[in-house]
Amino acid sequence: MRPGARRLARGAARQRPSADDAGGRRPAPVTAARRAGWAADLDALGLGENLVHNDLHANNVFATPGGMRFFDFGDSVLAHPLSALFIPLNVLLHRLETAPDDARLRRVADAGLEVWGDVVPGTQLRAALPAALHLGRLLRAESWLRVTATLTPPELADYGDAGTWWLGALGDEPPLS
Question: What does DSSP say about strands 50-52 and 61-64: parallel, antiparallel, or unpaired?
Answer without folding.
Answer: unpaired
